[in-house]
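Duplicate of #3305? Posting structure anyway:
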């Protein structure tokens, strides 16, 4: 491989779309084994029909992955240094859309509490459901159905040199991917940081280079543009106590975070486009970094509000940001990611600043969050959510602690209010009305247990 071609490969890492590399990593066998696959080899600038096999074990590096609902274009390299361009076009059937996301509005009449003529049997189970706030509430994990794939037209090109990309892609496709004319494929000076990691075949040499890099960077370990990193390599670098800040940016091969135990003094973590990350990974982060103070999450598409359950266990967490307008906070009026009983066990008094720009953020979630984190001083939300909050919030009773609520899009827009606030028009107020207070329900249950009472009492779900 010529030095010129080597530089072009490095250029691809820095300038082409990388956001969907994790899809290629996890689905590689499926991507390269479609029955309608056609294989070509580029020889002297001409494409020739060929046949070759690719397996997940062959995958050494992914240079880019451009993906829409109906197309996937990716450039990969195997362990021999051969380059393959994979072009898959999908023919899909749309699925019936699921229930739209919840909004902070009062449900229609048919979803409100029972009418005065309706009665409810006050069984022990009903009492428990009221006390635990699970009445008419359903836990939910998945939020969307995947489209049904009818067929896939798959074409795989084995390249002789980097310039062969022009033969395999249309001008429009090259533009979408981020490919310019090869004559302009020149590395910027600041893009040389991770070039030494590319094409290191030996793990031992890689680890040595990684240790030198960590020693050189000081307090901030920025892994941006390093797409070759794997968790097993990070696990072997040993203790690194001077690193206090970590940046993860599209490091799609990092699918385990036990290695963070090697960096016990990290206080701030920024995570960008880590589409491989799930809630279990954040539990690993919490376990390895119990003193984490700042956590910023940007466009990690496989998580939802349940990620707060591990994160709010951090005893020193001060700032939390989640940037993703489509971040799921509540699926429907009666479908919750975090149940009321789970909110009761969440308590994070150290948290002071929260920024969530999701348009799916409901008043209920905000209310639960402010109760679980009573010392929040600054809340930043989407502009439309801010409007809903301002129309439904009532001043609290804390004379000393103020809450600032502002817009994500326009930080100068917002208001301040005394803490321990109250909200009107909460969705949960319309699940099923509750005639008795919690203390009265507990008393009824205790008295029934003492008397060994077997019969159940009916109550009318309306005022007498």
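Output from current build:
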């Amino acid at each position: 491989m010529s030095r010129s071609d080597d530089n072009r490969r490095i250029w691809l890492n820095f300038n082409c779309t990388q956001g969907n590399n994790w899809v290629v990593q996890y689905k590689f066998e499926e991507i390269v084994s479609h029955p309608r696959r056609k294989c070509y080899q580029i020889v002297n600038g001409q494409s020739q029909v060929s046949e070759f096999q690719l397996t997940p074990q062959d995958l050494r590096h992914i240079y880019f992955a451009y993906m829409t609902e109906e197309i996937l274009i990716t450039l990969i390299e195997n362990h021999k240094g051969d380059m393959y361009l994979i072009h898959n076009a999908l023919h899909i059937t749309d699925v019936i859309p699921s229930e739209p996301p919840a909004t902070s509005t009062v449900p229609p009449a048919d979803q409100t509490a029972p009418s005065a003529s309706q009665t409810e049997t006050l069984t022990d189970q009903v009492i428990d459901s009221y006390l635990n706030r699970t009445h008419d509430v359903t836990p939910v994990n998945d939020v969307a159905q995947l489209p049904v794939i009818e067929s896939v037209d798959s074409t795989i090109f084995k390249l002789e040199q980097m310039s062969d990309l022009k033969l395999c892609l249309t001008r429009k496709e090259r533009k979408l991917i981020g490919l310019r004319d090869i004559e302009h494929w020149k590395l910027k000076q600041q893009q040389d940081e991770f070039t030494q990691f590319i094409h290191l075949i030996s793990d031992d040499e890689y680890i040595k280079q990684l240790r030198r890099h960590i020693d050189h960077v000081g307090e901030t370990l920025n892994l941006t543009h390093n797409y070759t990193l794997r968790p097993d390599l990070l696990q072997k670098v040993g203790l690194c106590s001077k690193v206090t800040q970590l940046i993860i940016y599209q490091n799609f091969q990092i699918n385990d975070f036990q290695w963070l135990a090697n960096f016990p003094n990290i206080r701030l973590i920024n995570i960008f486009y880590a589409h491989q990350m799930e809630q279990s990974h954040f539990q690993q982060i919490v376990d390895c970094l119990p003193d984490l103070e700042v956590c910023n999450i940007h466009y990690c598409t496989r998580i939802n509000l349940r990620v707060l359950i591990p994160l709010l266990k951090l005893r020193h967490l001060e700032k939390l940001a989640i940037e993703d307008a489509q971040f799921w906070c509540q699926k429907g009026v009666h479908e919750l990611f975090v149940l009321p009983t789970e909110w009761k066990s969440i308590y994070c008094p150290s948290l002071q600043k929260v920024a969530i720009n999701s348009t799916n953020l409901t008043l209920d979630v905000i209310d639960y969050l402010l109760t679980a984190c009573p010392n929040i001083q600054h809340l930043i939300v989407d502009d439309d959510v801010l409007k809903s909050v301002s129309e439904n919030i009532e001043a609290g009773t804390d004379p000393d602690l103020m809450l600032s609520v502002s817009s994500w899009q326009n930080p100068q827009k917002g208001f301040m209010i005394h803490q321990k606030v109250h909200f009107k028009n909460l969705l949960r107020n319309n699940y099923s009305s509750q005639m008795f207070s919690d203390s009265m329900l507990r008393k009824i249950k205790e008295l029934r247990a003492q008397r060994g009472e077997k019969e159940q009492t009916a109550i009318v779900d309306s005022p007498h």
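Confirmed duplicate; merging threads. The first helix runs from residue 3 to 15. Confidence is low (pLDDT under 50) at residues 105-119, 454-464.
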